[in-house]
Design brief:
The structure holds two protein chains of two kinds. By secondary structure, chain A is of the alpha+beta class. Chain A has two domains: 214 residues, P-loop containing nucleotide triphosphate hydrolases (Rossmann fold, 3-Layer(aba) Sandwich); 120 residues, OB fold (Dihydrolipoamide Acetyltransferase, E2P) (Beta Barrel). Chain A has eight helices and 21 strands. In chain A, the strands form five sheets. In chain A, strands 7-8-9-3-10-11 form a six-stranded mixed sheet, with helices on both faces. The model of chain A has no long low-confidence stretch (mean pLDDT 88). Chain B is 79% helix and 0% strand. In chain B, helix 3 runs parallel beside helix 9, helix 5 packs antiparallel against helix 9 and helix 8 runs antiparallel to helix 11. The radius of gyration of chain B is 20 Å and the shape is globular. The mean pLDDT of chain B is 90. Classes of the chains: A alpha+beta, B mainly alpha. Chains A and B meet through strand 7 of A and helix 6 and helix 7 of B.
Chain lengths: 357, 228
């Protein structure tokens, strides 16, 4: 199933938006681009909040907009979550949560309050007044409220950008769990690479009102010039399962041949695959496996690609023993002195590892 | 001060009826109009806004004069009504009701469109995404969040209609039980040198107007505090 979109929006002589695409409707699709590239406008067209003449929006078999046909938002069954808290201020947290649920015909309800409140950890918040909730808590209630209409599609418009770092940390696991468990396709508008790397399955890169390309997250991260690397440099995302913590409090991540040890306190063991986001500048390379060193995470890797130098740094793309891509950022001097070459086997030392969960 | 006689009670009854009907009609008309005005800044909206605000600056006699011409037996509206076998609207309660609706319109439209504008579009968009249709959105989100605007609009409309004089005198004359409202009766009393009767009615209106404005401003203030 796909979401077909055609829209042209002119501002004077220039195109503000020129879209002709079909977005796959499974998992999380990120619309990624700088502010002003038209991603929020596109989201509003999908939602039916912006009625652009001549635009076409088809959701699978359903025609939401075409010619003179226009289905208003309240009949599209789209869950919308905005940037800043958008709870209805005259209602309590519980009334907000149930506002849409009460308006959803019983036959369409597939998600119900008990599971949604558990999924988002908002059980204890429902009797509070809205002004007693933190930004992250409000956003979780907004997410729950949107989920409870059992939406056909969830549109998240920079849901984390108004939150401080701590609230972001707090809400991210809920978001990724929601993406996985609710089975509702999600379109996430974002200009933050971290959000995309943590949540998205594929990325539509937008620039100047157009979708430049749609890549899977893995493809997007494999390009050395990926726009996702604009902020913090190259990043790799490893996927794996987290095991039970050992006596020293460290938790194993990934299969034995490519095992990492994580120190975060909040991580839970489980069957679910989690993502580990690793900055390339936090990865060093060694020809031998150093034993007497404080860094505990050593992975045997094979060099797959060595990028040309940029700003006097070179990104070396390696794959781990379980076939995942791991990027290391080193200096041209290091490449020369170590004699790094494609196909070479060596060790990646990962200094700081931030588990995405 | 003298006690109120039957003429006074009759005028109070006419006045109260006029104010009540005007307020009810205007709230119904002004709500969609103010909503539309609050949605943007197009030229059409500015034109409508200016027209709605005209009674604020025009002498009431101007409005009254044109209404008399239009609603009278030979006017566009009055003539049509006559030809349909109905009565024209000059010198009738229906006529001054029509005039009051026009004359007090800015006092209903402006507080409402301000309230709608400060509400913003977010709560309404949220409600639509959660499956609420237009009427449902009005009932469950827009009205509860702009209730203060409605109270202010209703109170100001009621009070302003109470203070109407020029338009009514031009269009309605001074027919007891039909168009003789308090302000006209006070004028008649004063003309007849009946100062005591004019004084008791005037004082009544003065106190009523003060209480009304006091209520409006307290609501306004409470709303500002609540917003910050």
């Amino acid at each position: 199933m796909t979401l077909q979109l055609q829209a042209r929006l002119c501002h004077g002589d220039e195109f503000e938006l020129r879209i002709d695409t079909a977005l796959p409707l499974d998992g999380v699709t990120a619309l990624f681009g700088r502010s002003g590239c038209g991603k929020t406008t596109l989201l509003r067209i999908i939602a039916g909040l912006e009625r652009v003449p001549g635009a076409t929006v088809r959701f699978g078999e359903e025609v939401w907009q075409a010619g003179r046909r226009f289905v208003p938002l309240h009949r599209r069954r789209i869950g919308l979550v905005f940037q800043e808290h958008s709870l209805l201020p005259h209602l309590s947290a519980r009334e907000n949560l149930l506002y849409g649920y009460r308006r959803t015909p019983e036959s369409l309800r597939r998600l119900h309050p008990p599971e949604v409140t558990a999924m988002l950890g908002i059980d204890g918040l429902l009797d509070r007044r809205i002004d007693q909730l933190s930004g992250g808590e409000r956003q979780r209630i907004s997410l729950g409220r949107a989920l409870l209409i059992t939406p056909q599609l969830l549109l998240l418009d920079e849901p984390l950008s108004a939150l401080d770092t701590q609230s972001k940390r707090e809400i991210m696991p809920f978001l990724s769990r929601m993406a996985e468990e609710s089975q509702v396709p999600i379109i996430l508008v974002s200009h933050a690479p971290e959000e995309v790397e943590r949540l998205a399955d594929r990325v539509a890169f937008m620039q100047a009102g157009r979708i430049e390309r749609i890549d899977s997250l893995h493809e997007a991260l494999a390009r050395s010039d990926s726009p996702l690397f604009a902020d913090e440099g190259a990043v790799s995302v490893l996927e794996g399962r987290v095991g039970e913590a050992g006596e020293d409090g460290l938790r194993p991540f990934g299969p034995p041949e490519a095992r990492l040890w994580l120190s975060g306190a909040e991580q839970r063991a489980g069957d679910r695959t989690t993502r580990l986001r690793i900055l390339a500048r936090d990865v060093s390379l060694a020809l031998d496996d150093p034993q007497r060193i404080s860094i505990q995470n050593h992975l045997p890797v094979t060099i797959e690609r060595i990028d040309p130098p940029r700003h006097n740094r070179i990104v070396v793309a390696c794959h781990t023993a379980d076939g995942q891509l791991l990027l290391a950022e080193v200096t041209p001097r290091a490449v020369r002195l170590l004699g790094l070459a494609v196909g070479q086997r060596l060790y990646a030392l990962i200094k700081s590892v931030a588990l995405l969960e | 001060m003298s006690a109120l006689g039957p003429a006074e009670w009759q005028a109070i009854e006419v006045t109260f009826r006029l104010c009540l009907y005007t307020t009810l009609i205007l709230l119904t008309l002004a709500t969609p109009l103010a909503w539309w005005l609050a949605q943007g800044r197009s030229t059409a909206r500015v034109v409508v806004q200016a027209i709605v605000a005209l009674p604020l600056v025009l002498p009431p006699t101007v409005l009254g004069f044109y209404l008399l011409v239009a609603l009278g037996p030979r006017g566009v509206v009055g003539g049509t009504l006559e030809s349909m076998g109905l009565h024209h609207l000059a010198f009738s309660f229906e006529g001054i009701l029509f005039a009051s609706v026009l004359y007090s319109m800015p006092f209903a439209v402006q507080p409402l469109s301000e309230a709608f504008a400060s509400l913003g579009r977010r709560p309404v968009e949220v409600a639509s995404s959660l499956g609420a249709g237009a009427l449902d959105r009005f009932r469950s989100v827009i009205f509860p969040l702009t209730r203060g605007g409605f109270v202010v609009a209703a109170t100001l409309t009621f009070a302003h209609t109470l203070g109407e004089f020029g338009v009514i005198l031009m269009l309605g004359g001074s027919i007891p039980g039909e168009t003789k409202v308090l302000s006209v009766l006070i004028y008649d009393h004063a003309e007849a040198m009946n100062y005591e009767a004019a004084h008791s009615l005037s004082l009544m209106l003065l106190l009523f107007a003060f209480v009304t404005l006091f209520v409006v401003y307290s609501i306004n203030r409470r709303f500002q505090v609540a917003r910050v």
